[in-house]
Design brief:
Chain lengths: 320, 324
């Protein structure tokens, strides 16, 4: 087995707030092979975005990576000087966000913003930056790429705007793109298009993807493997087909049951009762226990890992 | 863009018309200028002749009509006191105020905006707290008091800078300018600094608030994720995103300083229009008051127009709305 592109071990990211220490990422471990597409799912507030930002070394104060290791091509990213991290960002590891209307700068032309991203990593003169930007726009399916460089973000539709953001992420052909719910803000029909294009682009360039979503259905159509996150921990992981067909964790079961396409027609969708707990004051034991149909006295203890690295769950009472 | 411009020009013309009427009526209500024009012991005949000569016996609306007609030809009347055209009088004094006001808003902007951006970028730093504390002083300490302290410190005690007047001037475009000579620049320094303190405080606060907000935005996160350096992000993204409120305040402050630099001009014996208006009010020099106010209104309207155009240049979304 070749060394993975990314190896995350026991990652802990905390926010030191006035109310106490918030453990947003609480001992997360996973690996990612070159060109692999990894889904990261969970309800909102489970720590997916913070995990993504941690990978780029972009956790805003008062947050910080409190422990663990992020090994990218054998290089340790935790504790790397800010200047070295900046060299990696955009060049080797890129990120795209949920709302393209908010990420692109409304007062700069798309070309100007792309040129800044090119020149952040050398990239030669304005002419060369423009050429590279136009090529990247064309690659994500924006017609008339050269003239569109002079347009402002508001002159693009929502889907086109997200394509611009993707084109910026692809500028330097990074090895890894962290995509934080990039289709959530878009129309359903456009979502499907962008998903398919993203998958094709990643395959074409051998780019690995960490695809963050609160929606298992989105991830299932895209990813090779999936991580299910709850209250800052990975509670289940495995190949997408296996996780969907035979989930181990009651939380994953709950997520599946609440998907419209997966439920039987005519039946009420089964929402998971309750809501995500506050990460500020997590009692010991399984954080899902208060919402779990299978919970019993044992769940007051920290749950054990069942299964192996490739197909695991964190549960006292796994299904099957 | 052209439609936008025409629309704005029409608006400006309407505002000017309304202002001229208000100013004319307002000043008409103050005192009787005849008492100033002729000596109290003049005969009734002389009195009546003078009133007729100045058109003061005509009905108010007719006087306004005559005034408006002259105004459109650029004629603001003659000063009762100096007996020279008001326009000449005001234009003679205006450059002094213009350079003082411009110097003070430029100091405010070029010093205040970087300090404010820094304070917004590092809100918890010791230097930022110092900057913010100083800006509170800039707001709350009265201008005249600071002016006196500046004179005492730099002119009287240290003797570094002159305490008053414009110093040596150079004539360019038919007007004398202090900032073009070393001596004039030294004379300009203290009054400009005095006037700039309030603007400095304002610019610091605005730039800080804007920067704090923008630094938390997804735009900055995305720029960081693309590997841009913090310096590039501040210079290329943040500055552009916070520019609109800054330009607004720059324009408004420039306008109001032009009109109301009175206190500073008095303290530093700066021979600008502020001193002129005070003198003309004391002397009931009606044409000068009216002419001055109309000119000030004109300057305000012009500055506002320029600020509106600057918006369109700064925010492409406005440009499109204007075109539609
Ligand atoms: N800047 C921050 N300050 C304090 N808490 C934060 C901050 N960012 C995220 N969090 C907390 O971290 C937890 C995980 O958030 P996030 O990763 O955004 O969730 P998700 O992306 O899964 O919806 C949440 O409880 C959230 O309140
Ligand atoms: Mg999120």
């Amino acid at each position: 087995m070749t060394a993975p592109l990314l190896d995350v071990r026991d990652l802990r990211t905390e926010f030191h707030t006035r109310a106490g220490v918030l453990r947003a990422v609480n001992g997360v471990s996973f690996t990612l092979a070159r060109g692999e597409i990894l889904g990261l799912v969970g309800e909102s507030g489970s720590g997916k975005s913070v995990t993504g930002f941690s990978l780029l070394g972009l956790v805003d104060p008062p947050g910080r990576i409190a422990g663990g290791s992020i090994s990218f091509e054998g290089q340790e990213l935790v504790g790397l000087p800010p200047a070295r991290l900046r060299e990696l960002r955009g060049k080797r590891i890129a990120m795209i966000f949920q709302d393209p209307a908010a990420t692109l700068n409304p007062v700069l032309t798309v070309g100007a913003q792309m040129a800044l991203a090119v020149q952040a990593h050398g990239g030669g003169g304005d002419r060369a930056a423009r050429d590279l930007a136009a090529r990247s726009l064309a690659r994500v399916g924006i017609p008339d790429a050269v003239t569109r460089l002079d347009a402002y973000p508001h002159e693009f539709s929502g889907g086109m705007r997200q394509r611009v953001a993707i084109a910026i992420a692809l500028l330097h052909q990074p090895d890894l793109i962290v995509a934080d719910e990039p289709t959530t803000a878009l129309d359903v029909s456009i979502q499907a298009q962008i998903l398919a294009e993203m998958k094709a682009l990643a395959r074409e360039n051998g780019t690995a993807l960490v695809w963050i979503s609160h929606d298992l259905a989105t991830v299932s159509s895209l990813a090779d493997r999936v991580l299910v996150m709850y209250a800052g921990r990975i509670v289940e992981s495995g190949p997408v087909a296996q996780v969907l067909r035979a989930p181990l964790h009651p939380y994953t079961r709950g997520l599946l049951d609440s998907l419209p396409a997966m439920g039987r027609p005519g039946e009420m969708l089964a929402q998971i009762p309750g809501s995500t707990p506050s990460l500020l004051s997590l009692p010991p034991g399984c954080p899902f226990a208060p919402r779990c149909p299978r919970a019993d006295a044992a769940c007051a203890q920290d749950p054990p890992v069942v299964g192996t690295e490739g197909r695991m769950a964190l549960c006292h009472h796994p299904l099957t | 863009m052209l439609g936008f411009l025409i629309q704005r020009l029409l608006q400006a013309a309407l505002v000017m018309l309304a202002m001229s009427a208000l100013v004319f009526l307002g000043v008409y209500a103050i005192g009787n200028p005849i008492d100033v024009l002729i000596s109290p012991d003049a005969t009734q005949d002389i009195r009546a002749a003078t009133i007729r000569a100045y058109g003061l016996d005509r009905p108010l609306w007719e006087q306004y009509g005559v005034f408006l007609g002259r105004l459109l030809r650029g004629d603001l009347g003659r000063s009762f006191v100096f007996n020279i055209p008001v326009l000449e009088l005001v234009l003679d004094r205006l450059p002094a105020t213009l350079e003082l006001a411009l110097a003070s808003v430029l100091i405010g902007a070029f010093v205040g905006v970087p300090l404010g951006i820094y304070a917004g970028y590092r809100p918890d730093g010791a230097l930022s707290r110092g900057i913010m504390a100083a800006s509170v002083l800039g707001f709350s300490v009265p201008t005249f008091w600071v002016g006196l302290i500046l004179i005492l410190t730099f002119a009287v005690n240290l003797g570094w800078l002159p305490a008053g007047n414009r110093g040596e001037t150079v004539r360019v475009l038919g007007a004398g300018w202090s900032f073009l000579t070393w001596d004039g620049l030294q004379h300009l320094a203290l009054p400009a600094l005095n006037l700039s303190l309030f603007k400095l405080a304002m610019m610091i606060r605005l730039a800080r608030a804007g920067t704090r907000e923008v630094m938390l935005s997804d735009t900055v996160k995305f720029a960081r994720a693309a590997g841009l350096s913090e310096w590039t992000i501040l210079r290329r993204h943040v500055l552009r995103l916070i520019a609109i409120p800054l330009v607004t305040v720059f324009g408004l402050e420039f306008g109001s300083t032009l009109a109301f630099a009175v206190v500073t001009e008095t303290i530093f014996s700066w021979p600008g229009v502020g001193k002129l208006i005070i003198e003309s009010i004391t002397a009931l020099d009606r044409p000068v008051m009216v002419g001055y106010l109309v000119l000030v209104a004109f300057l305000f309207v012009t500055i506002n127009l320029v600020v509106d155009l600057a918006y369109a240049a700064l925010d492409p979304r406005l440009r499109r709305r204007a075109r539609a």
